Amino acid sequence: MKQTIISIGRQYGSGGRIIAQRLSEELGIPYYDKELIEKVAEQTGLTENYIRQTEARPTGSFMFDLYNMTQTLPLPDQVFIAQSKIIKEAAQKGPCVIVGRCADYVLDDCPHCLRVFVMAPLDERVRRAREEYHVEAVHLESYVTRQDRYRASYYNHFAGKKWGEMGNYDLCVNSRIGIEETVEVIKQAALALDE
Is the distance from CB of 125 to CB of 144 less than 8 angstroms? Predict the structure, then answer.
């Protein structure tokens, strides 16, 4: 890989993180996910746990807005700005795979960014949450769809676009074809873009 940056948005339980890790290994390029949280924590002085909560918290609630009216720049916005800066720095270093965090939007002006969205059928995502992520929620289907709503809220708020809408991505792939097969599809798209 000479220059392609791969941003991967994904539905909860679609296997997007695993796909991103394997893609990174196969292409021999860096992988960024939780490392971004660590770097934001270092730069802002906020805890990693707070940053994770900020990403998972749906924006737009009345109490959340009321609290933020007392701040000069709301902390979630500060976190997003810091993350955006780190994402851009990672992309400037060279080819890499970046998971979530509106990376497709942050790198909107990057001509060598392959914007990917990974989805899967709900029953498969529920199975993965139970068997691989070991989530013990009573109503697992509701838990999975709620995680998607949080991601959508975060993305829609900061990117000003609709999360998961096909037109926002270069490639949308359903991981029901298999994890390895999904990795191969994205890999071939990235190699084609890299030419």
Answer: yes
